[in-house]
What we know:
By secondary structure, chain A is mostly helical. In chain A, 75% of the residues lie in helices and 0% in strands. The relative contact order of chain B is 0.12.
Amino acid sequence: xxxxxxxxxxxxxxxxxxxxxxxxxxxxxxxxxxxxxxxxxxxxxxxxxxxxxxxxxxxxxxxxxxxxxxxxxxxxxxxxxxxxxxxxxxxxxxxxxxxxxxxxxxxxxxxxxxxxxxxxxxxxxxxxxxxxxxxxxxxxxxxxxxxxxxxxxxxxxxxxxxxxxxxxxxxxxxxxxxxxxxxxxxxxxxxxxxxxxxxxxxxxxxxxxxxxxxxxxxxxxxxxxxxx
Amino acid sequence: xxxxxxxxxxxxxxxxxxxxxxxxxxxxxxxxxxxxxxxxxxxxxxxxxxxxxxxxxxxxxxxxxxxxxxxxxxxxxxxxxxxxxxxxxxxxxxxxxxxxxxxxxxxxxxxxxxxxxxxxxxxxxxxxxxxxxxxxxxxxxxxxxxxxxxxxxxxxxxxxxxxxxxxxxxxxxxxxxxxxxxxxxxxxxxxxxxxxxxxxxxxxxxxxxxxxxxxxxxxxxxxxxxxxxxxxxxxxxxxxxxxxxxxxxxxxxxxxxxxxxxxxxxxx
Lengths: 228, 268
């Protein structure tokens, strides 16, 4: 029988060293604070859920409001149709037309465009439409202001000069500071007749008296807003 | 109108007053200021309806008379256009019937003035026992617009024409030969020309209008003659002053002295 040699003694020192090293590393791992990315990663699931909910809420609200606005505009147009017919009826008296325009004005901002279109009608219709716009200016000056500024700033010759005149008078009622730059631009434009004519529908053709009137009303509107 | 003895003149005035009151009270219910097409460029004279105060009043003869009156007024205005060289067109406004001053509110007058309406006229006919009484209303739009705060210048005038024992022909002659239409068109045209810096035209129209205002015969305009005449003269003087101050003006008014009344619209 061969002689049995005693098993080699394990290298305990090396093992101990290894164990200590492992222990030290473990301890480091346990104590190491989480950095921002780790924290974010931890809450990312919750955050993304909340973000989707919030964005979805606002988007849905905006889209819903836009859709409701469109629906309201469409149904208003249908409801206003008969009244707008009265406004353009040549057999109606000026008083009838003015009363009709004031009823149309109850639709607020949804009545702005239909009434602006009627400014280009015959005289009684135009006067009634302007009265309606003044009524809306008192209840919703912000929307009216924006619509009138759009008339003055239009560059496609959509509106004749009487419509500009009415828009300036309605702006004086709105007293909205955001109209001041538009009125100042218009005042400068009146000093360059050729440039002004490029923006205004040519028919009916204005006389020098009409141009003076536009200037005067623009100054009046600016003065009403403290900028004359 | 020739002078009449006091008794006859008083009777005529009573007839006139009753006629006018009857016309006014009856017509008020028929007043209708419907729209008219004013979209073409240039000055305009609006010729509205000639109406009858009550349904029963409009017999066939009265209808014929109304048509003749309208045609006579139209031809008078055409003649005036040739005479004065004022560039206006006549717009016939069917169905439009102002009742009087109350119909011409500030906003409407502003709109009419912006659309270059000089004068609007309308008429009422009240058939009488012998012949017919006619009342013609005149609205001088530029005067009413620019001088609406002046209580002596309402800008709206009602002129009645009545002659006892006279037929429609006589009434038509009276209306046609009367100075009112010419005076009012000249005054209104002069005001517009002034506002548009056409000084020569303004001065000529205002001076011619001043002369005619002084010769107005209608008793209804008795209280308006002086204010209208003064207004026209003062505006003629202002026209000269403004022309002299305008560097672009090189016309004959430069020879006048606006401070010298005798040089402004001298009597012919």
